[in-house]
Amino acid sequence: MSGLSHQEHHLHDHRSELTRPEIERFSRQLLLPEIATEGQIKLRNAKVLIVGAGGLGSPAALYLAAAGVGA
Prior knowledge:
The chain is an all-alpha fold and 71 residues long.
């Protein structure tokens, strides 16, 4: 154990900067003032639960992954 509490360890895992590959992959989203770097970091650190992978769940999972959610 590193001596960090669970919450401190969880916060420590969230990187506050984007990597070069992330910047290249999400460059179009980063240009939008509504998203920018801060928004993309929030998307990367987000967690989503999709119940069902049918006609709506499958494309939703694809679009969320493509946007960088949980990446």
